[in-house]
Amino acid sequence: MSKYLKWAIFLFILVLIYFFYPKERFSKYESLIYGIEVSYPKDWSIEEISQSEPEKVLRFSSSKGELVINIENLSPPLKLNEYTRLIIRQRTKFPNNIKIETERTNLAGHSAFRANYDFYDNNKKTNIWSSQIWSVKDNFAYMLTYRQYFNIGLSFDKDEYRRFLNRSSKITKSFNIT
Question: How many domains does the chain have?
Answer without folding.
Answer: 1
